[in-house]
C-alpha cells in the first residue's frame, strides 16, 4: 500500500462538502488513516506551499488557504499518489474531467477544493507536517 496526503481546502469546507469529499475518496478505494480539521496559520500555509513562493499567485494562495478551516487527511491505497491526482482532476476546476472532485466541488484554478501530494517523497514530508506517527493508523 502506498501512502499520500490530501487537504480538503477552505472553499470546500465552507461549502459544506467535507463529508461528500471523504465519501468520494473512500469510494475511490482510499483508506482514511488519519484526519484532522485545522485552520492553517500564515506561516504554516507559506511553509506548506514554499515551492510556489516565487509564483505570482503565491500571496493569493496563502490568503485562500488561511481563509477558514481545512481538513488534512492521511490516505493509503495501491498507487495512492497517482490515483489521488486522477481522482482530484486537473488543477483548474473548470478544466477538470467530469466526475472528479475538482469538477464536482471546485470553482476555478485557485479555489479547487482539494490538495493531493505530487510524489511519494512529498507525501511523506506532507504527512509529517500534519500528523504525528502515533496518529497514523494503517
Ligand atoms: P495542490 O498542490 O493544491 O494539490 P496542484 O498540484 O494541482 O494543486 P500546484 O501547481 O501545486 O497545483 O498549485 C498549488 C495550488 O496553487 C493550486 O491547487 C491552486 O490552489 C493554486 N494555483 C495554482 N496555479 C494557480 C494560478 N495560475 N492562479 C491561481 N492559483 C493557482
Ligand atoms: Mg501541487
Outline the secondary-structure elements.
Layout: E1 2-8, H1 10-14, H2 18-27, E2 31-38, H3 42-48, H4 58-65, E3 70-77, H5 80-88, H6 101-105, E4 114-116, H7 120-130
Antiparallel strand pairs: 1-3, 1-4, 2-3
The protein binds adenosine-5'-triphosphate (ATP) and magnesium ion.
Adenosine-5'-triphosphate binds next to strand 4.
Could you describe the 3D structure shown?
With 138 residues, the protein is α+β, with helices and mostly antiparallel strands. It has a single domain (2-132), classed as Alpha-Beta Plaits, CATH 3.30.70.141. It is built from seven helices and four strands; from the N terminus they run βααβααβααβα. It has helices at 10-14, 18-27, 42-48, 58-65, 80-88, 101-105, 120-130; strands at 2-8, 31-38, 70-77, 114-116. The chain has a four-stranded antiparallel β-sheet with strand order 2-3-1-4, sandwiched between helices. The longest helix is centred in the last third of the chain and has 11 residues, at 120-130. It starts with a strand and ends in an 8-residue tail after the last helix. 35% of the residues are buried. Residues 52, 57, 61, 91, 109-110, 112, 115-116, 118 line the site of adenosine-5'-triphosphate (ATP).
Short overview:
By secondary structure, this protein is an alpha+beta fold. The protein has helices spanning 10-14, 18-27, 42-48, 58-65, 80-88, 101-105, 120-130, and strands at 2-8, 31-38, 70-77, 114-116.
Amino acid at each position: 500500500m502506498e501512502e499520500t496526503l490530501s487537504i480538503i481546502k477552505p472553499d470546500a469546507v465552507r461549502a459544506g462538502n467535507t463529508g461528500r469529499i471523504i465519501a468520494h475518496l473512500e469510494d475511490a478505494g482510499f483508506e482514511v488513516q488519519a484526519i484532522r480539521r485545522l485552520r492553517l496559520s500564515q506561516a504554516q500555509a507559506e511553509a506548506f506551499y514554499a515551492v510556489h513562493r516565487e509564483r505570482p499567485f503565491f500571496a493569493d494562495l496563502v490568503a485562500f488557504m488561511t481563509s477558514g478551516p481545512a481538513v488534512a487527511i492521511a490516505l493509503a491505497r495501491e498507487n495512492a499518489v497517482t490515483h489521488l491526482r486522477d481522482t482530484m482532476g486537473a488543477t483548474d476546476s473548470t478544466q477538470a474531467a467530469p466526475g472528479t472532485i475538482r469538477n464536482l466541488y471546485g470553482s476555478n484554478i485557485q479555489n479547487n477544493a482539494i490538495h493531493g501530494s505530487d510524489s511519494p517523497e512529498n507525501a511523506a514530508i506532507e504527512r509529517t507536517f500534519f500528523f504525528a506517527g502515533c496518529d497514523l493508523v494503517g
